[in-house]
């Protein structure tokens, strides 16, 4: 099955742009119609799939803000979550995506509290089958079903709008069989959909293409209602490591009429903070637009995308994204080609493809893995990774890196504490060789310290 080519993509983009102008606010309500709609200025762009009107901007509840309670424990800041959810719903967002794994297991509870303050018809909730434990054996089915009912309790609902098998592809076919197929869980959740306890059934995908292709082969039996994939202009043709290019995944879903839910539209934030000379190219065309807005517009140009998830931790990000999607302006052909060129240029930068999902946490040795990678990537983008001591900027860059590293990450949680135990490795959806990358960064830090002592 061939992937969509550039000509086909641009044709689809043009069709989507025409659809934006021609359709009413959230589709025509016809269950057989799959449409992209553009609203009057200031109203959220919605997509209609199977008669369900969904905001094109979806709320990813993986990165809720934290605070410290009276006992000194880190807890979700419920007051801020409530304010974010209120502003999102007021701005037209109605799709909220969570999991029992998100925010150290606290996301569903916080999300349920915030959403329950609004009428049920105002929002759609998606959560996932997230029992990743490989040592459950015969208890896999029992524990997964228990977790499924616990999710509904925490979310304060008696049905789920969307339920996904979580992170399939990680660990290959063997893990899929062990976690889902052999315990009969796919059949169980199909029965739950038949009963109305689940309205829409799908899966989120990372990892080995063999798993994706197998699940596509089941479509005639399962009738996937949607599939969640990692998609952005960098991953369209240049997915990191063993992930699969979004171009292929999207084409396979589009040809079957399966709506696409997009995760990691900013690739863990890296596409929101591009190297300066690449950002300058975007600003030369649209001076008022952020790099993040460019990425959202690129994804939204694809007509098969139902909603684009963004994990908005602060109100400023939410307000900026609401402005981007109210309404969304599709990319032109020339803009699409520019983003494809930038994606190719990004391959020259030694970025760690971490998306800050935090599945690797907690580290048994207290290392803040995502923060180390985020700091490193930020310094690469800002030009602080000057490797030649003879360069004029080396001394300044060396000091800036070390000072910012100590400020961003406490010494006890830095990369030098990694012993290479590998506990983090199986959980990474980006298949990053985490201990290797931590050791590489630690060697770099030690070299910078040594150069300063000479």
Structural commentary:
The chain is α/β, with parallel strands linked by helices. The protein folds into two domains: 6-346, TIM Barrel, CATH 3.20.20.100; 369-453, no CATH class. The protein is built from 16 helices and 13 strands. The protein has helices at 6-22, 78-90, 107-115, 140-155, 172-181, 185-195, 209-217, 219-222, 246-255, 276-285, 291-300, 315-324, 333-346, 369-381, 394-408, 434-453, and strands at residues 35-36, 46-49, 52-55, 57-60, 66-68, 74-76, 95-97, 124-129, 160-168, 198-205, 226-230, 260-263, 305-310. Strands 4-7-8-9-10-11-12-13 form an eight-stranded parallel beta barrel, surrounded by five helices. Strands 1-2-3 form a three-stranded antiparallel β-sheet. A two-stranded antiparallel sheet has the order 5-6. Helix 3 (107-115) links the parallel strand 7 (95-97) and strand 8 (124-129). Helix 2 packs across helix 3 (107-115) and helix 15 crosses helix 16. It is globular, with a radius of gyration of 22 Å. The protein starts with 5 loop residues before the first helix and ends with a helix. The model is unreliable at 1-41 (pLDDT under 50).
List keywords for this structure.
454 residues, alpha/beta, TIM Barrel, eight-stranded parallel β-barrel, three-stranded antiparallel β-sheet, 42% helix, globular
Domains (count): 2
Helix content: 40-55%
Q: Main sheet, how many strands, which sense, barrel? A: 8 strands, parallel, barrel
Name of the CATH class of the largest domain: Alpha Beta
């Amino acid at each position: 099955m061939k992937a969509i080519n550039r000509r086909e993509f641009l044709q689809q983009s043009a069709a989507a742009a025409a659809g934006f102008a021609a359709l009413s606010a959230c589709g025509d309500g016809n269950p057989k119609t799959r449409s992209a709609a553009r609203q009057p200025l200031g109203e959220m762009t919605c997509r209609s799939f199977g008669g369900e009107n969904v905001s094109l901007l979806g709320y990813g509840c993986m990165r809720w803000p934290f605070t410290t309670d009276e006992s000194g424990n880190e807890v979700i800041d419920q007051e801020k979550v409530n304010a974010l959810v209120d502003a999102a719903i007021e701005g037209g967002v109605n799709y909220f995506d969570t999991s029992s794994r998100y925010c150290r297991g606290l996301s569903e509870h916080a999300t349920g509290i915030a959403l329950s303050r609004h009428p049920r018809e105002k929002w759609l909730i998606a959560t996932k089958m997230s029992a990743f434990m490989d040592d459950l054996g015969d208890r896999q089915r029992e524990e997964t079903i228990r977790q499924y009912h616990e999710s509904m309790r925490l979310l304060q609902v008696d049905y789920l709008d969307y339920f996904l098998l979580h992170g399939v592809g990680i660990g290959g076919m063997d893990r899929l069989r062990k976690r889902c197929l052999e315990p009969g869980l796919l059949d169980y959740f199909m029965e739950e959909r038949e009963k109305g306890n689940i309205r829409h059934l799908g899966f989120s995908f990372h990892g080995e293409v063999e798993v994706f292709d197998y699940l596509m082969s089941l479509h005639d039996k399962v009738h996937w209602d949607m599939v969640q994939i990692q998609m952005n202009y960098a991953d369209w043709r240049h997915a990191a490591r063993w992930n699969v290019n979004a171009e292929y995944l999207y084409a396979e879903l589009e040809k079957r009429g399966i709506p696409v839910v997009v995760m990691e539209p900013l690739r863990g934030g890296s596409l929101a903070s591009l190297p300066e000379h690449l950002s300058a190219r975007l600003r030369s065309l649209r001076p008022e637009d952020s790099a993040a807005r460019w990425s959202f517009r690129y994804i939204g140009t694809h007509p098969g995308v139902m909603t684009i998830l963004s994990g908005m931790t602060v109100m400023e990000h939410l307000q900026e994204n609401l402005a981007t999607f109210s309404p969304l302006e599709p990319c032109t052909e020339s803009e699409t080609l520019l983003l494809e060129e930038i994606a190719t240029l990004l391959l020259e930068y030694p970025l760690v493809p971490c998306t800050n999902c935090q599945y690797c946490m907690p580290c048994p040795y207290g290392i803040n893995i995502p923060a180390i990678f985020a700091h490193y990537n930020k310094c690469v983008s800002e030009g602080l990774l000057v490797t030649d001591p003879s360069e004029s900027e080396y001394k300044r860059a060396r000091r800036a890196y070390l000072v910012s590293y100590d400020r961003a990450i406490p010494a006890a949680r830095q990369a030098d504490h990694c012993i290479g135990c590998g506990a983090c490795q199986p959980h990474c959806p980006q298949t990053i060789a985490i201990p290797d990358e931590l050791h590489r960064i630690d060697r770099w830090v030690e070299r910078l310290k040594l150069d300063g002592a000479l």
